[in-house]
Fold these 4 entries.
Entry 1:
Amino acid sequence: MSRIIVDGLDTSIVNTEFLKLLQAGGVDCIHKSMGEIQSYGNIYQFVDDHAQDVTIARTVGEILQAKKDGKISLVFGSQDVNHIERMMDKDATGTYAPMRASLRGYYELGLRIQGICYNVTNVFGGGNLDPKVPLTRAGSRLVEEIHKLKLVLDVGGHTGEQTSLDAIKISSGVPIVCTHSNMAALVPNPRAISDRLCEAIAGTGGVIGITAISDFQKRSYMNYKQHGASSPQATLDDHMDQYDHLKRLVGVDHIGLGPDFVWGWGQDFIHQAADSLTFPPDAMGDGVPKLVRDFEDISKLPNLIKGLQGRGWTEAELDKLLGLNWLRVYKQVWGA
C-alpha cells in the first residue's frame, strides 16, 4: 500500500468542497473534531449521501480498508468534555454515572479520541490559560473511564500543563497524544506546549500534532501589544521550524499532522480578542484566524511535504509524520 496520510485534527466544515480539498492534499483519513450529538447526526447524513467517497472509521483496519476502497475515512474526536460536564450538572445526586453514560454513548456513535479542557478550567482540570491547575479528583475518574473505553486521551494544547502531566502520570502503559498544538520554546503562545510536556507525551509512546494556526506561531505574551490587533502571518518556513524543533527534541516517531484547519467557517469565526474568555489578546488577534502562508487548507499539504524534503527529511521520516505515527497509537489504544 502507498503512503497513508492522516490529518490528525481538523475542525473544517465537512461538505463536498472539503472532500475535494482532502483529495487534492492526498489525505486518506481525517480526525474530525466533533461537538454535541447533532454534529454526529449531520456527519452521518453526509456520509450516507456520499458513501462512494467517504466513510466513518472506528478501527485502524477500517481506515486501511477505506484507503483500499478509494474512500476518505473520518475518525471522530472531541476536544473537551464540557458537554459531559453539563450532563453531570443535571444529576441531582452528583454521581459519576452521567459521565460514564455520556462517554459510552458517544463511543457508540464513533468517538475515538477525547480531550479534557478547552482553554479554561472545568470540573476535571485546568485549561491552557490556567496551566498550574492540577487534574482534579473528577478528572482522575474521567481519565480512568477514557482508558476503560479504549479512547485515545488528548492532552496539552487546550488542556493546561499540570493537568496534562497529571493525566499522563496515571496513564501507565498507554500512549497519550496532543492532537494539535505548537512549540512554546519557539513562540510562547498560551496555546503552545512546553518541551517538558512534549517529552512526557513522547515518553508514553504518544504523538504531538502541529497546528497551522498562524497566531500560535507568531503571537505571544511578549509581543502581542507590539503586534496589536493582527500579528504577521506565519510563513511556511516558520511552520517547518516547529517540526524540526520537535524532531530534535523527541524524535520523528512522536510527530504528526494536527493542522486544526477551520475551512468553511468563514465569517462565523470572527474573533474579538478583548472580549474572548478562551483566546485572549496574547493568544490570538482579531478577525478570522489566519493560517500559515502556503498552508492555508489541507489541499496545500504538498507544499509542506516539499518543504520538509528540502530540509532533509527522508521519505521514511515523512511516512511516519504524515500517518504511520497516528496509526500506531490508534492501533495500540483501540486494538486491531
Entry 2:
Amino acid sequence: MVLGCVLLFLASVWLVRWHNIARPNRELLRARIEIERVRFQNADLDGLLKAAETAIARNSWFDFLFWTRGQEITGWARVHEFQRGSIEFLPVEIIRVRLLTIGLDLDKARAAFIKDALAVQPVDVEALRALLKDSLTYLNEQTMKTFAQLVGWQTKAVWLAGLGGGLIVLLASAVGNPVLFLAGATGGYLSRLARALKRADVPTDYGASWTTLFLSPIVGALSGWFGVLLVVVLSRFNVLGDAFQAVKWESVSPISLGLAFALGFSERMFDGIMAGLEDLGKK
C-alpha cells in the first residue's frame, strides 16, 4: 500500500511539473520568439531565434523525467542576444522610449544616468545605443540569474521528493507503522493548503511555488513517523511529562494518529520534540 501511494504521488509530481511548469515556460518562450520575429525581422539575427526554437521543439522522455535540461535557459539567452542585436537598427526615437521604459526597472543611480544621457544635446545616437545595450544586458543578466535559481530549486525539490518517497517505502517495510506516514503527509498537505488559501497573488515565479507543494506531504510524512517514534523514546525517560505516556509504538492508537497528523502539520511541534531530545543528550 505504501509503495503504491508513494509511486502515485511521485507520478503526480512529474505530471504536474511537466504540464503545469515546463510546458507553460516553453510556451512563454515560444511566444516571445514569435513576438520578436514579428516586431523585427533580420536575416543576420534570425539564426538566434531559430536556435532557440529548435531547443524547445523536441519533447522527449528525457525532458519529461529530467526537466529542465537547460533548453529554456539557453533559449532565453538567445532571445536576449537577439533583442540587443536589434538595437543597431532601431531609430533614435524608439531608443529614447526604450531607455525611459528600462529606467523604471533599474536602480536610482542607473536611472539617473539614463536621464542625464537623454538630456544631452545634440543627441549622440551611438552613445544612446551603447547605453541601451548595456542597460538591457544588466537587466537580462538579473533575469537569467533569478530564472536559473528558481529552475535549479525546482529540480532539487523533485529530487528531494523522490528521495523522501524512497525513504518512506524503506522505513515502512523495515520498521512498520506505515499509517503514521499517511497521517503525517495529510497534516503536511493541509498545512500547505491553508497557507496557499491565505497567500496573496504574486507575479510569475516560473513554477517555484510548486516546490513547497511537492515537498510538504513528504516532509509531513517523515515528521509524523519520526515524531511519534521520538515521543515514544522520550516518554520512557519522562522528558515530555505524563501527557504522552499513552503513545505506544507497538499499537497505533487514535492518539498516535492524531499526534502524527499534528507533527506533520506543525514544524514547530517537531522542533520542540527535537529540542527535548537534545536536552536529553546533554544530561
Entry 3:
Amino acid sequence: MPPSPRVKYSLRCIDCGADYAPKDVLYLCSKCKGLLDVVLKYDEVDVEKLHLKPFNTDLQVWKYRELLPIEDYTQVISLGEGGTKLYRCLRIGNVIGLGKLYVKNEGGNPTGSFKDRGMTVGVTRALELGAKATACASTGNTSASLAAYSAKAGLNCIVLIPSGKIAIGKLAQAVAHGAKVIAIKGDFDHALKLIRDLCEKHSIYLLNSINPYRLEGQKTLAYEVFEQLGCRIPDVMVVPVGNAGNISAIWKGFKELKLLGVTDKLPRMIGVQAAGAAPIASMMAKGMKQLEPVEKPETIATAIRIGYPVNWKKAVRAVNESKGAVTVVTDEEIVEAQKAAARLEGLFIEAASAASIAGLKRALQEGIVDKDEVVVCVATGHGLKDPGIIERLYEKPIEVEASLERVLNLIGRVESGQL
C-alpha cells in the first residue's frame, strides 16, 4: 500500500478538552481521567482520495486511509478486513412491518466479527509506538481478533477472560492464534480492571475499546454503509451495545462525512442492550447523569454481557446528539430474532448480533422507528462464534433407523405438523 500524505491529528479528552500529541501512549486523559478521542484536521482531508461512489463493492478498511490516524501505511497490519455485505432483508421486514430493512453482516470479517476493523488500526499503531506485546480483556470476539492481528504483526498477546463465560467458538480462535489466555474467577469488568493495571505497569499495549485508535477503525463501517446505500445516509442505525465503543465509533464515522461536506444528513442511533446487562438504557430511562453498573450482568448474548461499559459517555453522547434511543430486549427476543435471521434471510449471526434485530422490532412497536424509514441493523459477529446456543435452545436432530420407509414416514409426520 503506497504511502499517503498525513492529515494531522491529536488526542482530545471528551470531558475537559485537553489535547495530547499522538506520540503519547495514553488511554485516558492524564488530567481528569476522561475518555480520549482522535481529532483530525478535517480541512486537510482530500475528499477526492476517499473515492466515495454509489453502490461501491470494492470496499475495505484501508480504502479510507485518509481518515485513519496512522503514520506509515507501508507497515499496515491487515487481514483484508472490512467490505462486509449489506443485505436487504425483505422477509424479516415483512414480518415486523418495515419496508426498507438492511443488515450489515460484520461476521464476514476475517475473524468473524466487527472487532477486526478496530484491530487492524490498533495493532498497526502498536507497532508504530514500538510495542512488543498487546493485551485485552474479552468476552470473546476481542480476544479472537487481537490474537490474530498480533500473530500477523509478530507481537506477543495476552488475553484475560471471565472463567466459564466465553463461547467456545471465540476462545478457540484466541488459543489457535497463540495468545496467552488467562481465565479469571470474575466477570468481564474485573478482567478489564486487571488488564488495565497490567498494561500500565509493564508497558504492554492495551487494545480494548478504551483505546481511541481501535474506534478509528470501527468508524469505517459508517463509510461503507454510505457507499453501499448509493451514497445515502440511512434514517436509523441499530447497534448492539456491550462495552459501547461500536455505536460511538459508527456515529463518529457518519459525523465525519457531514463535516467533510459529503452529506448534510445524519442517522438516528439506536443502541440495544440485553435485559440482564442494560446499565446505559437504565441510566437514560431514569434521566441520570452517571452510570450505575450492573454488578452481575447476565444474558445469553455473551458479547454484550457487560455491567460497566467503559465507553458509556461516548455512547450516550452519540445517542443524544443523533436524537436516538437505547432500548432493552429479553434473551427470548434475542433468540427469536436470531432464528428469524437464519430462517428467513439465510444469515447465521451470533446472539449479540441478533439483539439489533430484536431491538428494531421493539423500537417499531414503541414508535421510536417509523415503518417507512430506511434502517440498517448491525450484525456484529458470525453465528459460529457461539454454537452452544444452538445446541442448548434449538431443535435437536431427529434420529431414525437407516431405511427409506422410516425417513419417508418421518417426513410425512413433519409435513402434517405431528413433529
Entry 4:
Amino acid sequence: MRKTCCSLLLILFFALSLPVSAAAPTVSPKAYNKLNEVQKLMSAGQTKDAIVVLETLLGEVGDDTMDKALTLQTLGYAEMSQENFPKAIKHLRASLDMNLLPEKVKYTVGYMVAQLYAAQGKFDDALTFATQWFDTLVDPTANQMIFMANIFAQTRRYDQAIPFAERAIASTDQPRESWYQLLTAASFELKRYDAAERSLKQMISAWPANTEYWEQLASVYVVQENDAAALSVMKMAWLKGLLQKESSVKSLVQLAVTRGIPEQAARLLESAFEKKMLPRDAVYVDLLANSWVAARESDKAINAFTELAKLQGTGEALTRVANLHMEKGKLGLAETTLKQALDSGLKDPGKAWLLLGIVLSEKEEFSNSFEALRKASSFESTRKQATRWLSYAEEMRKQQEWQARYGSS
C-alpha cells in the first residue's frame, strides 16, 4: 500500500515540477537532464541507482538554487518510495526550507511530509504541515478532509476532528465505513452521546450485519439511562441472529433483568442454551434460576436451582429450593430438601438448620424443631433468629399441649 502511494506521489511530482521547472531560467540544463535521467531510472524500478545519481547531483548544485530545491525534493520522493521515511522527511523539509518551490508544489510537498510523519506515528508534526497544506485548498475532497480528521483525532483534538469527519461524510454519496467509525469514536471520547447515537444509527442502516454497531448503540442508551431503548436494540440484534458472542448474549439477558422483565431474561437464557451460544454452567444456570424466581415461576425456579446444586456439588442451591417449597406450603418437600442440603455440605449450615427448625415447628414436630433450632443458634449468622424461633416454638408447643388438654372440655 505504501509503495503504491509513493509511486503515485512520484508521478505527481514529475507532472507538477519538471515541466514547469524546465522552462524556468533558474534551473540549469545539467540539473534538468540529471533529474530527467532520475525519472527514467525510477520509472524502470531502479530507485537505488536513482538515489546515487541524486546524491551526486546534490553535491554539485549551488546553494540557494532551484537546482538544489528540486534535487532535494526528488531525493525525498525517491527515499519515500523505498520507505526510508526519516530520510525522505529530511530531504523534503530541506527542499521546503529553501522557499524556492512554486506555491502549488510547495504545499503538495508539505502534504507529503504530513503523510510521512503520520505513517511514523508523529501526529503532532504531521498536523503542522497538514494544516498549512489544507488551508491552501479551495475545494478539498472527502479524502483530504478525512485525512485532517484522522490527524486531529490521533492528537486527541476530537472537537476539531469531528467537523472534518462530518464534512467528509456529507460531501460524498458513498462515505467509507472507517469515516463513520472515526466520527463515532470521537463523539464517544467527548461524551457527545446524542451525536454517537446518530452516527451509529447511520452505520447500522448501512452495515446492518456488524454486531458491534448494535452493541455500541445499546451502550449509548445505557449511558443515557435509557435501558428500554438499549434492550430494544439488543433484542432486535438477537432476532436478526447477530448476537453470537457469549458476552453479547449475556448483556442482552442482563438488560432484560434490569428492565424488570425476568421472564424474558429466562426465556432468552433457555434459547441461548439450546443454540449452544452459552455454556450451561453454574454461572448461567444461577442466573436462570433467579430470573424464574423474579418472574414468580416457582416450579421452573425449583428445577433450575436443583440443576444448579448438581453443577456446584454443594447444598447452597438446595436451600433456595427449600425456601420455594415453603412459600408454596409444601413443608414435607422443604424438610426433605433441607436435609439433602445439609448432607451435601454448606458454607453456612446455620441458615439451613434455622429453616429446618421453622419447617418442623410449622409441622408441630417440636422435639425435632428444638434440636434444629439449637444447632442454628450455635452459628453467629443465625444465633439471634434461632433464639427468637426457639421462644416462639416453645409457645407454640405450650399452646398445642393446652389445646390437647382442655380443648375438648
